[in-house]
From TrEMBL:
Species of the source: Helianthus annuus
Taxonomic placement: Eukaryota, Viridiplantae, Streptophyta, Embryophyta, Tracheophyta
UniProt feature, compositional bias: Basic residues: 1-10
Listed PROSITE patterns: FBOX
InterPro entries listed in its UniProt record: At1g61320/At1g61330-like, F-box-like_dom_sf, F-box_AtFBL13-like, F-box_dom, LRR_At1g61320_AtMIF1, LRR_dom_sf
Official protein name in the record: F-box domain, FBD domain, leucine-rich repeat domain superfamily
Length: 446
C-alpha cells in the first residue's frame, strides 16, 4: 500500500526519532571509542560540539597501523612517507595528553626499527610518566617477519628508571624489540605489578636468569627470539611459560605454581633430554606442550618422567614420510589424569606408503581421556595407527576431532594443492575411522 503521509510529516517524524547514541553518557561513548584505533577515534571530533574533545578522554591509546601496513606491502615506495606520517600522528596525540594524569594502555603497531629510536624513546618515556599498565611495542611488518637483530629497536629506559623508579606496568608486549640484561632486570625488579611479559623476534643475551621472591611475573612468553643459549627460571610464582624457538637449555626450579609449560624445539634423544630439564616442575603441571622436530632420531622412553596432574598434552611434531609415531604415546601414558591429547603433525614429505598397521606392544588404558585432536591428519598409516591406539585404549573417550589442515614443508605446493590434499584427508578420515568408532564417540572432521 502506497504511503500517503504528507512529506512534511515524514520529515518531522524522522527528526523526532530518538538518537540512542546521543543519549548515551560520556563514559559509555568513551568505552566505545576505546575499541577503535586512536586515528579513527579522533575523527569523531568533527561530528558535533559534544564529540569534539570526547576522544581525548580515552585511557587506551591504540596506534594500530595495520591498514597502512597492508598498503606498504603492495607499494614499497610508500614506506618512508607512511612511517613519517605515523610518527607524526603518535606525537600529535601524546602531545595533547600531557595534562592527563595517567593513561592505562598504549599500543604501538607499525613497522619501525632502530633508525626510529629517538621517537620510540620519547613514547616509552611518555608511557612511564603516565603510569601505563599495558605497553605494547609491535614494531614488525604486516607479516610479523623477524628482521636482522641489529636492526631492531633497543628498548630504552630513562635515567629516572635506572635509579629505581617504580613502574605501574602489568603487561609488557615487545615485538621486534631487543632487550639487554640490565634493562630486563630493571623492568622485573622495579615493576611489582608486572604479571605478563611477551617477547617476539627479540635479540637477547646468552644466559637469561629470572628469579627471586620480588618478581611478580605470572606469564612469560618467548617466540622466535635469538642470541641466547639457556634460560633459568626459579623462585617465584610463575604460572605459565611458553617458549618457541631454537633448541636451548632449560633450568626450571622452585616454581610451585607453574601450571602450563610449552617448549620447543626440543630433542627427545639422549643428546639433550628435555625431560630431565623440566623434572623439577613436573608435579604441578596441568598443560604440557612439546615441539619435537626430529622424532626420527628416536625417543628415549626410559627418560620420560611422570606428570601426575597433566590434563592436556599436545605434541607438535615434524615427521618424515610415513614413519610410525606410536612410541610417542609413552608420553601420554606418563600422564595418568590426561583428559585431552592433541597432536599437530608437520610433514616434511607428506607422502603415503603401504604397510601393515602396527600396535603398541604393551597397551595402556587411559582412564580419563575424553578428547583426541589430530591436526594435520592425512590418512597415512601412521595417522591411522595413532587414532586406533586411542580408540582402543581410551576408556572414557567422547570425541575425536580431525583437522586435515596440511602442514607440509617439503615440496613446491600451490594453494590448490593444499586444498586438494585437505579434501582427500577428509575422505580418508571418514573412510578409515567411522567403521571402528565406538558407540557414543563423536567424530568431527573439520
Amino acid at each position: 500500500m502506497k504511503n500517503t503521509r504528507p512529506r512534511s510529516a515524514q520529515k518531522k517524524g524522522d527528526r523526532g526519532r530518538p538518537n540512542l547514541i546521543s543519549k548515551m553518557p560520556d563514559d559509555v561513548l568513551v568505552t566505545i571509542l576505546s575499541l577503535m584505533p586512536i586515528k579513527d577515534a579522533a575523527v569523531t571530533s568533527v561530528l558535533s560540539t559534544r564529540w569534539r574533545h570526547l576522544w581525548r578522554n580515552l585511557l587506551r591509546l591504540n596506534f594500530d597501523g595495520t591498514k597502512t601496513l597492508k598498503k606498504m606491502v603492495k607499494d614499497k615506495k610508500l614506506c618512508d612517507t607512511e612511517r613519517a606520517k605515523y610518527i607524526k600522528q603518535v606525537y600529535n596525540v601524546i602531545n595533547s595528553y600531557y595534562n592527563h594524569p595517567m593513561v592505562q594502555d598504549i599500543r604501538i603497531r607499525f613497522d619501525l626499527d632502530d633508525s626510529h629510536s629517538e621517537a620510540i624513546n620519547d613514547w616509552v618515556q611518555f608511557a612511564l610518566d603516565k603510569k601505563v599498565e599495558r605497553l605494547e611495542l609491535n614494531l614488525l611488518d604486516k607479516n610479523y617477519s623477524v628482521r636482522e637483530p641489529d636492526e631492531n629497536y633497543e628498548f630504552w629506559l630513562p635515567s629516572s628508571s635506572m635509579a629505581g623508579e617504580m613502574f605501574s606496568l602489568k603487561k609488557l608486549f615487545l615485538k621486534g624489540v631487543n632487550l639487554n640484561e640490565t634493562t630486563l632486570n630493571i623492568i622485573l625488579k622495579n615493576s611489582p605489578h608486572l604479571e605478563k611479559l611477551y617477547m617476539f623476534g627479540s635479540n637477547l643475551f646468552p644466559r637469561i636468569h629470572v628469579g627471586g621472591q620480588d618478581i611478580n611475573l605470572k606469564h612469560f612468553k618467548l617466540v622466535d627470539c635469538s642470541g641466547f643459549e639457556s634460560i633459568s627460571l626459579y623462585g617465584f610464582d610463575l604460572v605459565s611459560f611458553i617458549y618457541c624457538g631454537p633448541e636451548i637449555q632449560f633450568h626450571l626450579s622452585d616454581l610451585p605454581k607453574l601450571k602450563e609449560l610449552d617448549i620447543g624445539e626440543v630433542s627427545v634423544g639422549l643428546e639433550n633430554n628435555v625431560f630431565s630439564q623440566i623434572s623439577s616442575c613436573a608435579l604441578n603441571l596441568q598443560v604440557l606442550v612439546l615441539d619435537m622436530w626430529s622424532p626420527q632420531k628416536g625417543l628415549d622412553v626410559n627418560a620420560i618422567i611422570k606428570f601426575p596432574n597433566v590434563k592436556k598434552l599436545m605434541l607438535v611434531m615434524g615427521a618424515e614420510e610415513d614413519d610410525c609415531l606410536l612410541e610417542f604415546t609413552s608420553i601420554a601414558q606418563a600422564c595418568p589424569r590426561l583428559e585431552t591429547f592433541s597432536i599437530s603433525l608437520h610433514w616434511y614429505t607428506p607422502t603415503k606408503r603401504r604397510r601393515k598397521v602396527r600396535r603398541v606392544a604393551s597397551p595402556h588404558v587411559h582412564e580419563h581421556l575424553k578428547l583426541l585432536e589430530m591436526i594435520g591428519y592425512y590418512g597415512r598409516i601412521s595417522d591411522v595407527e595413532l587414532a586406533v591406539y586411542f580408540i582402543e585404549n581410551a576408556a572414557a573417550l567422547e570425541k575425536i576431532v580431525i583437522d586435515p589442515c596440511c602442514h607440509a614443508s617439503g615440496g613446491d605446493f600451490t594453494t590448490e594443492d593444499f586444498l586438494k590434499r585437505e579434501q582427500a584427508a577428509r575422505s580418508s578420515a571418514n573412510r578409515q575411522l567411522t567403521p571402528i568408532l565406538p558407540p557414543g564417540v563423536n567424530l568431527v572432521i573439520l
